[in-house]
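Here's what a typical entry looks like (Erythromycin esterase family protein):
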Amino acid sequence: MLRPASAVLALGVLIGPCSAQTSPAALVAAVRSAALPLSELPQSYDPVLRAAAQAKLVLIGEATHGTHEFYRTRAEITKRLITEQGFDAVVVEGDWPDARRVNRFVRLEGTDRTPEQALSDFGRFPRWLWRNTVVRDFVAWQRILNSRLPRETRTAFYGMDLYSLPTSRVEVLRNLTSLDPGLAQRARSRYHCLAAIDPTLQDDLAQTDIEDAQTCGQNVDNVFADVRQLVAERGRRPGADREALFNLEQNARVVKNAVAYERASLDLFGGGSSWNIRDQHMAETLEAVRTHLGPDARVVVWAHNSHLGDARATEMGRHGELNVGQLVRQRYGAGALLVGMTTHTGTVTAAPEWDAPAQQMPVRPALAGSYERLFHDTGLPSFLLDLRRAPQGLAQERLERAIGVQYLPGTERVSHYFQASLPRQFDLVLHFDVTRALQPLDPAGTSP
């Protein structure tokens, strides 16, 4: 998810002039000619399926965290990728332990009997991100599909974010206690330093001194190394529960990377870019998922455009920030397909401030000089554009909008726009001119 508005204020830039080679009217006409209209029919997404034919990872982004059309379209494309091309898993911009419960549900494990129950662990702000009607229906579909498949071929649902430090810590210690009590005790001692970041992460009343805080990074690294060694050894045993071992390893990875993220965010003893640490963790998680599922695994990724478009094509890259889309492209080349989505106006589910209840908010019409306004000017209600064969002039940088969990229409220019070259950022883009707000499962106005 996008962090508070201060994280994007620095992205505001002046609107650049139109290309000298292509007039605005000619560019609009060229886009209209190249656009492939979208409809409710599944075959509308055939170009995405064709483009994904050789992909190992398909990254499907969204310009907001609260638009129904983005979620619905992404779910429908993913269903076809799974059923027609054999994709093995969905990995979302959500926390690992929360998605773990969903994964057990869709794989016909655990005790949950409804998708609403399975999504219950997505309880912190912004819970509408995954607790909404579209995700509920997709999770129900995935469970039905898996009920018809052998256990070893059932599709999976994973999270790749790192905001679950307290929960992941508990999970590591709980699992180690049953597998190796001695190792669990060493991990508990090493995790003691986490109280320097969050006092609630302390098992007793002992004080955490400055030395503990300074060495915490090494402590959690050591736990992760021990866990990986244990997982590798136990995974070779006949009848090993590979999914449970993978869950242990990933929770230890979350703790390790969350400590680095928190140190950077809080500026504790040096740190670096918290954005980069977070996206590197997400990319690392994708690699771990593919390793776990096997060398031929194919994965669909759901997250915001800002994470899944190539950062090198945006203002972010010039500020030294990288993201999942860049890292995946650098690793997989043509084996990665990056898909973005945009809208001109409508309504969105968002919050006016961090930790505030969700609201259905009107989305202001896109600014002049933006990709969204250019696409609006085509007069097409919705369309798909193959950016690998983009019309001349489209690659010139212009404004692009990003609405995260907060929407601040009063300062929209500096809070929600950044400069980008869309054809270098994504392979395909889907535009929906007028969109409506995502419907949360929780009542409107409910506090997070």
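Residues 386 and 428 are 5 Å apart (CA to CA).

More examples are in the samples folder.
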